[in-house]
Amino acid sequence: MKTNAYAAQNATSPLAPFDIQRRALGQHDVAIEILYCGVCHSDLHTARGEWGGTSYPCVPGHEIIGRVVEVGASVQKFKAGDTAGVGCMVDSCRTCDNCKDDLEQFCDNTVFTYNSPDKHTNGITYGGYSERIVADEAFVLKVPSNLDLAATAPLLCAGITTYSPMHYHNVTKGQKVGIVGLGGLGHMGVKIAKAMGAHVVVFTTSSNKVEDAKRLGADEVVNSKNADEMKPHLNTFHFILDTVSAQHDINAYLLLLKRDGNLTQVGVPPEPLSLNVGSLVFGRRSLSGSLIGGIKETQEMLDFCGEHNITSDIELIPIQKINEAYDRLVKNDVKYRFVIDMASLKSAS
Ligand code: NAP
Ligand code: ZN
Ligand code: ZN
């Protein structure tokens, strides 16, 4: 079905209107009218080709909330009229060890929501900056009914990307947890770490975010550019989540971990980061990475956010403002997630 979308035609041209085709509904498929789509920094990295490997035209968007309009004959979980979410993946092989362990994001054949080979169209997948998406119900999420829909969209990537490593590393009540970077991921990290009972310290390079960080739940806020503010925190953290999207010094944060502490990198700067091995060997500290989360865990995270009334702090934009939003993301000028009101795409068509 012909579907209005917004696409980048190459790494340097602004996103602009573009028609895509959505596949006909298969037996296990759910067709969703997209109401809201969050704007993740990964959308920008991909659209602008910063990581390499982008296939153009590129329709980004993997924080999708919408209304089910039609379901395939064998669909069990959804019916027309239901609210539904789609995150960063729309399929995987379903048979490998990673898939069997509910870690589809590590499957060799994960089909990401955009910029992945699409076996249905023989092209590439197109994401949520569009009117409609068709996905297998196994990769469609149920949305808690008590949450604001627009503010829930960012949970589908920013929420799970921060929830999953904190869950995996057993963040619990009373632990000291650091969140580096107060953007889309970072602000969700603060809310989720607080709900897990942690003592949360935010590290920001933006002095104008200090008050917000406290309002979002941070117990302490550190200006990471100021060495005097960093020093009292040496050797004190159980866990640090680094969400920074650009080149920065991770050694400064590794030194803040206590013995056996872990720093998990979720931000994916296009440039390599340099590691001073000494910051790991003293204190048996560890450094790891984490990629979104599996579908089962994504549902668990949504339910957790429903229980704790957690959503994102958003700035709702029409799709026509997407290029401006990208420019503001690069300047760290986001409070704290842009979400596209997809009605704007309809009205423009
Ligand atoms: P974002 O909203 O732009 O936030 C990034 C934050 O990083 C900024 O707000 C800023 O916070 C800080 N920052 C940016 N440039 C910096 C610099 N040069 N030095 C120090 N701090 C800097 O981006 P996002 O959507 O949260 O995404 C963050 C990163 O995570 C991106 O690289 C994205 O691709 C990646 N990501 C990874 C996964 C995964 O599964 N691993 C999932 C989603 C996104 P302050 O102003 O507070 O300093
Ligand atoms: Zn994302
Ligand atoms: Zn697999």
TrEMBL record:
Q: Which UniProt keywords apply?
A: Metal-binding, Oxidoreductase, Zinc
InterPro entries given in the database record: ADH-like_C (IPR013149), ADH-like_N (IPR013154), ADH_Zn_CS (IPR002328), CAD-like (IPR047109), D-isomer_DH_CS1 (IPR029752), ER (IPR020843), GroES-like_sf (IPR011032), NAD(P)-bd_dom_sf (IPR036291)
Checking Gene3D superfamilies in the record gives:
Medium-chain alcohol dehydrogenases, catalytic domain, NAD(P)-binding Rossmann-like Domain
SUPFAM superfamilies from the entry? GroES-like, NAD(P)-binding Rossmann-fold domains
Q: Which Pfam families match?
A: ADH_N, ADH_zinc_N
**Domain Enoyl reductase (ER): start-end pairs:** 10-340
Identify the domain of life: Bacteria
Q: Required cofactors, per record?
A: Zn(2+)
MF annotations from Gene Ontology: alcohol dehydrogenase (NADP+) activity; zinc ion binding
Task: Name the family.
Answer: Belongs to the zinc-containing alcohol dehydrogenase family.
The entry's protein name is: Zn-dependent alcohol dehydrogenase
Which organism does this record belong to? Chamaesiphon minutus (strain ATCC 27169 / PCC 6605)
